[in-house]
Amino acid sequence: MRIHAIGGYNEVGKNMTAVEVGTDVFLFDAGLFLPAIVGVSEKERVPTERGMRNLGALPDDAYLESVQLQDKVRALMVSHAHLDHVGGVPYVAPRYRAPVLGSPYTMSVLKVLMQDSDQTIPNKIITVPVDGSYTVRTNNTYQLEFINMTHSTIQSSIIALHTPEGIILYANDYKLDNAPVFGDKPNYTRLKQLAQKGVKALVVDCLYAPDDRKTPSEKIARGLLEDVLFTTDNSRAGIIITTFSSHIARLKTIVELSQRLNRKVVFFGRSLSKYVQAASNIGKAPFKGAIQLVTYKKQMIKMLKKISKAKSEYVIVCTGHQGEPGSILDRIARQELPFDLSNDVHIIFSSKTIPTDVNELNRDQLEKRLRKYQVRIFDNVHVSGHGGREDLRDLIHLVKPEHIIPSHGELQKRMAGANLAQELGYKLNKTVHLMDNGSVLTI
Asked: Where are the domains of the chain?
């Protein structure tokens, strides 16, 4: 068995890993490197594989062709619906004569993204139920299992690849949330069963492995939002909430709390519209009937003028939590959209700034513009979707892998995961492996 680190081992994003067993290859994820496209307008984003590669937005899977593995790929499995895991699929998948598999929401998002960009792929798209599996038969038989795992988008999975050489667990991304506000808690029962069978290797998200904490449950984020909305005098205030478009559970909470305030809820922007539509397509947007979706510029201008005259009657939900140029909040702050910012406007960032240089710079510039209007800012009303150091410890104890491969971040993050593994008895370069993009591990 050989494990190929293709993307996400030197950076946060463009996640992709290949597992080679005999004459068969299985791919996990095909994500975008989002910093490469932040600030690049949709007109500048050439919707071709070459255009996206020139931007540095795609994993370097051309490597598989160079080592004559391209024609051996049997499946591309997608762990969840975030762009740094699924966003590269429309560009990468056509290189392989293999199906694309994922949970209903993940595949719904993929289809909506392609429809929005007028893209198609020749690959068969296969929806696998959460906690379901799919069988691939070549000279050998492989079971591809999608095990329910909590994260900051719904229907995320730890993927188990059952091979004649053992089980590979792919845990990008995960958190151990025992009280999710939407969906089920992690399928610990199945993970324990796999541990008893024997897990050959665990490829695991180490984004927050340096943090000495257990990541709080999403119910804590609900409590934080509730605290801001109901213990702050906002009876006459305008309220703007910005969060991740794909965070369906968080959006559900925002709508429910806004209804308790007797406010109408308006979602602004194409990104929110796409993810809500993808959830609605599979019956996972119970709040859709309680919101108004506004996506086109003329509609937005008309609605924002209306809301400006009756701020206390509405909650605005929009993009812009990372300070992304061209996002709705950025355009409001630049006065490119007609909403009256003043000291009677509360802006709630139900998010954390993703730690990249471009994001931190954009967010800092956004806040400087907003503060000119003396708005009230409530930052980090949020809990992460990534496990901390103590979650990682619990996951390792749970699945008892023979080998551990830290992933999802630069060396400092992966080294923190490797150091923890060594505390637990694993040996560096023998049973815990620090890989870089383009490196290969033989087990």
From this structure: 2-214+385-442, 218-378
